[in-house]
Write a structure and sequence with these properties.
The protein is an alpha+beta fold and about 140 residues long. The protein is built from six helices and four strands. It is globular. The N and C termini lie far apart (about 75 Å).
């Protein structure tokens, strides 16, 4: 049976059904983002938002024992000095860390983030601290003084 033997109404119905199936398939593909999509989204965030995201990811990696995730958020200069043993010792000393971000000050390719930290193995009082950041290859990284 060829297209010529189909009625016009049936041909239109088949065409609409095929287009609907293609539309659904394409809509389902839209749910997954690519690294390029994420990069475009990240470039739309303000520097403050990006720095805040890095700080929370850094603390989450520390709390969960994710050495590679922790190291990924540190500037090149200090990442080369970080070892798994030093990371484990830091985690053991501090325990779980909870933070609240108080202020972020961006000046070109550097920034400071003021935060209050509460350490599981620390004192009862939260401690005000400052983290330094530098932009490397378009990404904000924590860099220690």
């Amino acid at each position: 049976m060829g297209f010529r033997s189909l009625s016009r109404a049936r041909l239109v119905a088949m065409l609409v059904a095929c287009l609907g199936a293609v539309s659904l398939a394409l809509a389902g593909c839209g749910g997954a983002s690519t690294s390029q999509d994420r990069a475009v989204t990240a470039t739309r965030e303000s520097d403050d938002d990006q720095i805040r995201d890095v700080m929370y990811a850094f603390i989450d990696a520390q709390n969960s024992g994710d050495f590679n995730g922790y190291a990924a958020h540190i500037c090149d200069e200090f990442r080369t000095k970080l070892t798994k043993d030093r990371f484990d010792a830091l985690r053991s000393e501090s325990g779980r860390v909870d933070i609240s971000i108080d202020a972020i000050d961006v000046s070109g390719g550097t920034a400071t983030l003021d935060y209050t930290a509460t350490y599981e193995h620390g004192g009862d009082e939260p401690e005000p601290e400052t983290a330094e950041f530098v932009k490397e290859d378009g990404d904000w990284k924590m860099c220690f003084s």
